[in-house]
# Entry
Amino acid sequence: MIVAYVPNLFDRSRFGAGVRFVDDPAQAMELEPDLILVDLDRCPAQVLGDFCTGDVPVIGFGPHVDSDGYDRAFRAGFTEVLARSVFFKRLPQLLEQPEGRPDRR
# Structure
């Protein structure tokens, strides 16, 4: 199962039906996801690490100019952080991976 913290409704419409949206990290962990996607631009910095518990890959995305946000996400334990444009180009591929896990090639 793929879980996403994406508060923006327009962005949510780009994900399709196979994604469960959550309002906070606790909800994400309750669902026992295979992959977590996080909109860094709308996620409070103090909860970033709460998405990174266990061995579930966590991919964040945000503005390409927000290097501080990228650094915070990596320090919190995110597996990967992408510029918003790159993330949405890769989104169909991410959603098609077995069990939602990112392709490591």
